[in-house]
Structures are given as C-alpha cells and as structure tokens.
Write a structure and sequence with these properties.
- By secondary structure, the protein is an all-alpha fold.
- It has a domain of 63 residues: 434 Repressor (Amino-terminal Domain) (Orthogonal Bundle), CATH 1.10.260.
- Helix content is 45%, strand content 0%.
- It is built from 5 helices and no strands.
- The longest helix has 18 residues.
Amino acid sequence: MTLTLIRPSHEGQERIRLPKRTRKAHFPPAEQSRIRAALRNLRRAFGSWSCLGAVTGYASETLVGAACQPNRATPTLVYRVARAVGLTVDELLRPGLRDADACPTCGRKGAA
C-alpha cells in the first residue's frame, strides 16, 4: 500500500495579507524620559554602549536611539534591559532612579 499526498485546491481562496507590525511606544511621556535617563545611567555604569549592548543583547545603535530619541523604547527593550541589569521593570521606571556612580545603600558617590 502506498500513501499519496494530495495538495488542497486553492481555488476561490484569496491570500490574506496581515498588517505590518508597527513599533509604537506604550509608555507615557514621563516614563519615556525615565527610560532614557535609565539607559544613559546604565551606559555610565557599564562604561560604553557596546558593553551595555553585549549584556542586554541589543546593538549599541539601538540603545543609543532609545536613549536619545523619544518613542524609540519598546516594552521588550525595557524588559530585557531591566532583566540584564538585575532590576524589575518597576524598579527601572521608578522616579528618582539612583545615579550609577552612587552606592545603592548610602548614596555616596565615588569609588568604593
């Protein structure tokens, strides 16, 4: 016994085109500015955009664009950056994020 595969007929079926995915920022303006500030702060903590990109898995150009231009940070980028640096998204977006050069306990700036 042999098995023969028969392809279904496509007569009368139109090809459905799905809309292109668009990148829309899902953050209000206040959170967008905190995201940009956090990215710049993390760049200082890691030393360069390329080092931060290596940790997060993003190209340095993507991170620079998200840090310098409004409406460029996506929820995925924010999640991956927060996860890579050991923060939650809420901690990353919290107002008054500490300076990267400051001690997280006492707030003292400078070398330890």
